[in-house]
Design goal:
2 copies of one chain form a homodimer. Chain A has 218 residues and is α/β, with parallel strands linked by helices. Chain A is built from 9 helices and 6 strands. In chain A, a hairpin with a 5-residue loop joins strand 4 and strand 5. Chain A is globular, with a radius of gyration of 18 Å. In chain A, 37% of the residues are buried.
């Protein structure tokens, strides 16, 4: 078997994986579906007795290649999809991210996050759009885990506010970007594991300063 | 002669070009040096009887290749340099734009604009940094002239306010980005030539909406 076949076999094993939801998690209000087989993600959703207030889904190009139909099913169930710019283009077959966003949101989610790495992230929400910059860094030590840290920061902020409005999602994207900016400073979880709230607030303030301007329009 | 030799010959002719400054321009407060041979740019500066309040310079990779020493001279005379990300990397030999900015500002200008096309623009000013997003567009019809339109919008806004503070430069970058976003919608000057102030203000409002968020820090 070649590598691709091996991957697909592993995928099938993964797709048959039936995750057990601990009883304590049954009433979760906020669900973050990490980047696993779309069928595993939908199994999780279907295993919950009550629909969470907000379901956010991460995915990647690999699933678009090998599990497109499953992906479409899961996508139709969630509220927010978080992917990068290349994946948005692949999924929509559109180069323009604005056009891509329209097509992807027609597949189900009412909000779409498109991550552009060092170029920031876009949040599309119904017919509105918000842009969060990435912090210009002297050095990126290791980008591994930045996407997951971003996702965790996003849903963590929303859960802490218990609000799913566009305004709260905007702030959540800024916190998500701040958390990701810590992640890349060291290997693995080295930088994030001992972070204090004060450090996080200071970092968020840097984002505020980075984009804050004051134009008085007539 | 090959193309490169032809270009260098034309450059030498250009570099000997001695632009005549009309008397009415002698007291200009704001000088925008378009992307010409660095020697022509410094000749213009030296032909002015009085130093303008602000001198902004555009340049490109070509001059870095063929007229590096002249470029260093002109760069040491101006207040603001406007280049794109690739050019900043070439000029500084640094990949990180933060490191690049420090090196370039040590060459003379106290402010540096790094344009990143569809990914927005960074304004470095002394030890501070500001980020202006690009508007996410459905379509870019023709990017020709976007850089010049950006430059014109930048210095035009500053001249209209007659202020060269960091805060005014921040707003100027937003107006510059707004002007450039019109430029790419049609060929040449078709879109910009009949623009109304109202259309410009509406476009600037889109930039405000794009990055506006409200985080209450403790």
């Amino acid at each position: 078997m070649n590598t691709r076949d091996t991957l697909v076999t592993e995928l099938n094993v993964l797709a048959d994986f039936d995750p057990i939801i601990p009883e304590a998690y049954q009433d979760c209000k906020y669900l973050m579906l990490g980047n696993l087989a779309p069928k595993t993600q939908s199994t999780v959703i279907n295993s919950l007795r009550k629909r969470p207030k907000l379901m956010v889904m991460d995915t990647m190009n690999f699933w678009m290649d090998v599990a497109y139909d499953d992906l479409m099913v899961t996508l139709s169930m969630v509220d927010v999809l978080s992917i990068n710019d290349e994946e948005a283009r692949q999924l929509s077959k559109e180069h323009s991210l604005v056009k891509a966003a329209k097509k992807i949101m027609a597949m189900g989610p009412k909000a779409l996050i498109i991550k552009k790495g060092e170029h920031g992230a876009l949040l599309f929400y119904e017919n509105r759009v918000f842009f969060a910059p990435a912090l210009p860094l002297e050095e990126v030590f290791d980008p591994t885990g930045a996407g997951d840290t971003f996702a965790g920061g996003f849903i963590g902020y929303i859960a802490s506010k218990d609000d799913i409005s566009f305004d709260t999602m905007k702030s959540a994207i800024i916190y998500a970007s701040a958390m990701a900016s810590f992640c890349v400073e060291k290997f693995g979880t080295e930088r994030t594991i001992n972070l204090t709230h004060e450090e996080i607030e200071e970092r968020v303030q840097e984002f505020v300063d980075l984009v804050q301007f004051d134009i008085k329009l007539n």
